[in-house]
Write a structure and sequence with these properties.
- The chain is mainly beta and 76 residues long.
- The chain has a single domain, classed as SH3 Domains (SH3 type barrels, Roll).
- The chain is built from no helices and five strands.
- Strands 4-3-2-1-5 form a five-stranded antiparallel beta sheet, with no helix packed on it.
- A hairpin with a 4-residue loop joins strand 3 and strand 4.
């Protein structure tokens, strides 16, 4: 997942309930695999323990596969 944009729930108090889903970019994973360095949409970078992260889904660019200038609107 390194280099990917993802939706995550971050937990620092022991509960994932009532936490917000937010977008992050995965920057790196520690050699032990226990820590993940993330960057939020504001450019802030920080490390979080893997146990404090709940993966929601990977974000895929809407422009992928569309030539420049082609409409990205869905057709009926």
């Amino acid at each position: 997942m390194v280099g990917k944009r993802v939706l995550l729930k971050l937990n620092s108090k022991g509960y994932f309930e009532n936490q917000f889903v937010e977008e992050y970019r995965v920057l790196e994973v520690s050699p032990s695999g226990q820590w993940v360095r993330l960057m939020n949409v504001h450019g802030n970078k920080f490390w979080r323990a893997l146990t404090e992260i709940a993966f929601v889904e990977e974000l895929v660019s809407l422009r992928a596969g569309h030539p420049e200038g082609e409409s990205h609107e869905p057709t009926d």
